[in-house]
Write a structure and sequence with these properties.
alpha/beta, 2 domains, eight-stranded parallel beta barrel, globular
């Protein structure tokens, strides 16, 4: 039973994204309106080997519920064992199986989207995990391996027969990666073909996108991924649009900068080892993503690409605001001056 997918609800999921949807980011998206969380994918073998780094990916707090831990692998029995271990540790609300990841290091181990080419193996994995655990099991998949092998409807029916209780469908093939457009016609076909809830995923960046896909298909929820990397306010904005039919006021530059700094501070605190330099360095791409749509974003990205301390981050933000004030009085002014070395 997945109570967040009952008929009177239409939840917004934060898509699992490796290197992005860690515990800190999930918590911040929850505050901004995301309804359901899924962890970064974790290796079933890593769990069984009690690898501390793998186990770290399963961490969450109760505020983030409902939350699922996503597993990948190609041995159903072993994955079932790993799922049981996770439930003993953390008791997530559901286990999610990754049948969608397109990256080579996962596909080369017969995990992720590679299973879309081997339906008997996919069936074995789904059935073994579903019968191994006392919590619901869901799955995330792509519409097929490539344009010549779009088999999402067939796969969805197999998963339903195996006891999978909901399916998130990303409307691209493995061959597409993240290029081209998501095929919502196929997502709609999947939603029509099975009785279990289908969550649509792909090219959702606004409340209008959510409303259109809800109206055009029988999906029971929407999953938002890359748009949240640049605009985590997308969940709040989408809910506002769904409730009122009006666009919410976008996050201000001040809101964005407050979020950036708070994210960095929370990441350092969560790490708990005083590794400010290492954490800020790992946050560079995240900070650069947050500058999308900000005037002067190119200048910010140049400086964020080298940031290594909170003090340096504060200097960058202060320099940016000084320049904005200068622009207000001298419109001909150019980019912010370089920061002192």
């Amino acid at each position: 039973m997945l109570p967040w997918l009952t008929n009177d609800r239409f939840p917004l999921y934060l898509a699992p994204m490796a290197g992005v949807t860690d515990m800190v980011f999930r918590g911040m998206c929850k505050e901004l309106g995301a309804d359901v969380m899924v962890t970064e994918f974790v290796s079933a073998e890593g769990i069984l080997q009690r690898d501390d780094r793998t186990r770290h990916y399963t961490e969450f707090d109760d505020v983030q519920r409902p939350l699922g831990v996503q597993l990948f692998g190609a041995d159903g029995v072993r994955m079932g064992e790993a799922a049981r271990k996770i439930i003993d540790w953390k008791q997530p609300d559901f286990i999610d199986i990754n049948f969608g990841c397109p990256v080579n290091k996962v596909v080369s181990k017969n995990g992720g989207s590679s299973l879309l080419k081997d339906c008997p193996l996919l069936k074995s994995v789904a059935a073994e995990v579903a019968k191994a655990v006392p919590v619901p099991v869901t799955a995330k998949m792509r519409i097929g391996w490539d344009a010549q092998h779009v088999n999402a409807v067939e796969v969805a029916r197999i998963l339903e027969d195996c006891g999978i209780q909901a399916i998130a469908v990303h409307g691209r093939t493995r061959a597409q990666g993240y290029t081209g457009l998501a095929d919502w016609d196929v997502i709609g076909q999947v939603a029509d073909a099975v009785k279990i809830p289908v969550i649509g995923n792909g090219d959702i960046a606004s409340g209008i996108d959510v409303e259109v896909r809800r109206a055009q298909t029988n999906v029971r929820g929407i999953m938002i991924g890359r748009a949240a990397m640049t605009n985590p306010w997308v969940f709040r904005e989408a809910k506002h649009y769904l409730a009122t039919g009006e666009h919410a006021k976008p996050a201000s530059i001040e809101d964005r900068f407050h979020f950036m700094r708070r994210h960095c501070v929370a990441a350092i605190a969560h790490d708990g080892r005083g590794r400010e330099f290492e954490i800020l360095r790992s946050m560079r791409n995240r900070l650069m993503n947050y500058t999308k749509s900000i005037p002067g974003g190119k200048w910010l990205r140049q400086h964020f690409s080298q940031v290594s301390s909170l003090m340096q981050l504060d200097d960058i933000l202060a320099a940016y605001f000084r320049h904005q004030e200068e622009l207000a009085h001298a419109p001909e002014a150019g980019a912010p001056a370089p920061l002192p070395v």
